[in-house]
């Protein structure tokens, strides 16, 4: 088995125990579903890190995050949209942090959706910076919750991909692309 | 405002919809003065392109007057602009390389999923061309919201008529890029499949790039006549056998470069083509590809094939063996319009390129459904329909 291993990221593994390996990279693992996604952004590493590190700004490109409140330097409170007009909430603490390089977090006890993860920022030469999100989570209310979430397009894997694209748009162009024609349509889209 | 909306196969209507508004800092609102119907619109009209939704506003070839600007737009109210059909941000890696139709950011994040699944990576946004390419409202309307207006639109000096510059929005740069992709060398013979607007601009461009001979292929006498006016030799595929004729016309060598300017609408009374048509119209899979097959078979050994023609899905009986064994090169893609605008505008102003010969019909926006019908049904006489929303305002 071991000699079949390659250099591809663990998040793209076909093996189910890929999760265990991914978890080894996290100080604290919460949840059993794994999402991994990279995007290359044509901006300097420090700039991207700084924007992300101010968690209150994250709702500007994370469509399903309603609000992030800062409790102290390393603890934040997250209010996230869930299917059926509901919200789910949790507190998250930063478990590891390296300026311009890495932000890792884990939810605290009692989270509606236990989760942990890391955002890595790596130089990509004249292409800018590779931003990689690795997220572990427990789908709300298990399997059924995931099915429902998928129906509502709030499935974390899809959401993470779209959020990263929006982050890239915002950082590279200063705005988030929309095909809406009117403010009314735009509001309906992001509702 | 009034706008031409898609409702299904061969069903387009002029409806009243909400006026567009400035939504992002780099936006501008354009009041449309001229907007054309494109061969690509016929693919939508015929129902060949997936991810269309009832009520979508069509049109990707348009120009007009700037009436409103966002705080980051570099345009000024009152300026006349031609708007590229490819929407591009100007700041991503691909825009930096002038590969504007591969822009990473102009396609909204949610719409990129479809193309990512189908093509591996999502392409840029396009005006009025299905949700896979963004779902942007198009230019066959009184007003259009133009995103990234500091990058795309080109300002037209006063005193130059709309008809002279409108085609900078798409088909002129498309014909030019296709000829450039054919890597024409002095003395070359270039064969062009399709004498629609794109093919005719390919003919013009190929000569400007030094082709010695251009052979234009179609079955509409009127369109072949236009190609002949630019110096092309003509080949009517209903009259003559395409491959045999091309071989004889090139002394048994085959054309040095072949350009497919036909695409999904390819006609041909051949079994493979009929089969393609059934499959495309039932969405069971493959595109109609008769012209690209012929181009590959006819092309000389080591020659170049350029394919501005639009295909959307999969292909059956693609002559991959011929392509490999003969060592051909194929270049294709949606046009990187922004890259070509300054040079082509200059060529128009210097009188090196004329585009007005193409326009056969000028109609009011309210007559757009009729415009689609005649462009679709009477291609011999209807070479290009330009809609003028101003004509409605005069009539009202
Ligand atoms: N790459 C781009 O960015 C881009 C931009 C604009 C248009 N296009 C595409 O270019 C193509 C042509 O556009 P157009 O506006 O000129 O379309 P059009 O429909 O007006 O012209 C197509 C012509 O091809 C002829 N034709 C059909 N079957 C043929 C065959 N087997 N052999 C030779 N000729 C044949 C038709 O008679 C017609 O005159 C379309 O596929 C369009 O979608 C691509
Ligand atoms: Zn077009
Ligand atoms: Zn771009």
From TrEMBL, chain A:
Gene3D superfamilies: 3.30.530.20. InterPro entries: COQ10_START, ORF3, START-like_dom_sf. It comes from the Bacteria. Residues 41-163 form the Coenzyme Q-binding protein COQ10 START domain. Signal peptide: none annotated. Pfam families: Polyketide_cyc. Belongs to the ribosome association toxin RatA family. This is Putative membrane protein.
TrEMBL record, chain B:
Keywords: Metal-binding, Oxidoreductase, Zinc. This is Threonine dehydrogenase-like Zn-dependent dehydrogenase. Residues 25-153 form the Alcohol dehydrogenase-like N-terminal domain. Residues 197-265 form the Alcohol dehydrogenase-like C-terminal domain. GO terms for molecular function: oxidoreductase activity; zinc ion binding. It comes from Novosphingobium fluoreni. InterPro entries: ADH-like_C (IPR013149), ADH-like_N (IPR013154), ADH_Zn_CS (IPR002328), GroES-like_sf (IPR011032), NAD(P)-bd_dom_sf (IPR036291). The keyword Zinc applies. The lineage of its organism: Bacteria, Pseudomonadati, Pseudomonadota, Alphaproteobacteria, Sphingomonadales.
């Amino acid at each position: 088995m071991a000699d079949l291993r390659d250099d591809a990221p663990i998040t793209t593994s076909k093996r189910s125990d890929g999760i265990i390996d991914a978890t080894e990279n996290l100080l604290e693992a919460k949840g059993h579903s794994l999402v991994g996604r990279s995007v290359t952004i044509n901006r300097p590493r420090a700039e991207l890190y700084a924007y992300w590190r101010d968690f209150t700004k994250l709702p500007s490109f994370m469509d399903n995050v309603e609000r992030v409140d800062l409790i102290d330097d390393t603890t934040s409170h997250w209010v996230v949209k869930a299917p059926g007009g509901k919200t789910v909430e949790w507190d998250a603490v930063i478990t590891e942090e390296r300026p311009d390089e890495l932000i890792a977090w884990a939810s605290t006890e009692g989270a509606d959706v236990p989760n942990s993860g890391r955002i890595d920022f790596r130089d990509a030469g004249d292409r800018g910076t590779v931003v990689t999100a690795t997220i572990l989570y427990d789908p709300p209310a298990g399997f059924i919750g995931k099915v429902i979430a998928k129906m509502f397009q709030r499935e974390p894997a899809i959401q993470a991909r779209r959020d990263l694209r929006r982050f890239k748009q915002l950082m590279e162009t200063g705005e988030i692309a929309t095909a809406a024609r009117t403010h009314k349509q735009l509001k309906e889209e992001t509702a | 405002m009034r706008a031409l909306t898609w409702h299904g196969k061969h069903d387009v209507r002029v409806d009243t919809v909400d006026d567009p508004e400035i939504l992002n800092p780099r936006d501008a609102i354009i009041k449309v003065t001229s907007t054309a119907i494109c061969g690509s619109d016929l693919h939508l009209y015929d129902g060949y392109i997936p991810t269309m939704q009832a009520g979508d506003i069509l049109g990707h070839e348009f120009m007009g007057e700037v009436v409103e600007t966002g705080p980051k737009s570099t345009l000024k109210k009152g300026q006349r602009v031609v708007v590229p059909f490819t929407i591009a941000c100007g700041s991503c890696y691909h825009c930096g390389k002038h590969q504007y139709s591969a822009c990473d950011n102009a396609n909204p994040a949610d719409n990129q999923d479809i193309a990512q699944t189908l093509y591996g990576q999502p392409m840029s946004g396009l005006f009025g061309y299905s949700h896979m390419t963004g779902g942007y409202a198009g230019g066959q309307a009184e007003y259009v919201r133009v995103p990234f207006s500091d990058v795309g639109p080109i300002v037209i000096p006063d005193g130059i008529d709309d008809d002279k510059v409108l085609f900078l929005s798409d088909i002129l740069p498309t014909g030019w890029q296709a000829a450039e992709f054919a890597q024409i060398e002095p003395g070359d013979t270039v064969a062009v499949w399709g004498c629609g607007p794109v093919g005719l601009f390919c003919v013009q461009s190929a000569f400007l790039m030094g082709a010695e001979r251009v052979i234009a292929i179609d079955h509409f006498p009127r369109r072949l006549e236009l190609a002949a006016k630019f110096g092309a030799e003509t080949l009517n595929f209903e009259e003559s056998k395409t491959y045999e004729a091309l071989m004889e016309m090139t002394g048994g060598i085959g054309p040095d470069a072949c350009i497919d300017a036909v695409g999904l609408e390819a006609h041909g009374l051949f079994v493979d083509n009929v089969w393609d048509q059934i499959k495309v119209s039932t969405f069971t899979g493959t595109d109609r590809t008769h012209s690209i097959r012929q181009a590959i078979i006819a092309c000389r050994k080591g020659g170049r094939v350029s394919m501005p023609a639009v295909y959307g899905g999969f292909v059956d009986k693609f002559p991959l063996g011929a392509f490999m064994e003969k060592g051909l090169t194929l270049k294709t893609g949606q046009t990187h319009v922004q890259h070509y605008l300054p040079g082509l505008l200059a060529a128009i102003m210097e009188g090196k390129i004329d585009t007005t010969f193409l326009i056969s019909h000028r109609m009011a926006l309210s007559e757009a459904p009729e415009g689609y019908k005649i462009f679709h049904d009477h291609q011999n006489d209807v070479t290009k329909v330009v809609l003028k929303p101003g004509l409605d305002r005069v009539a009202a």
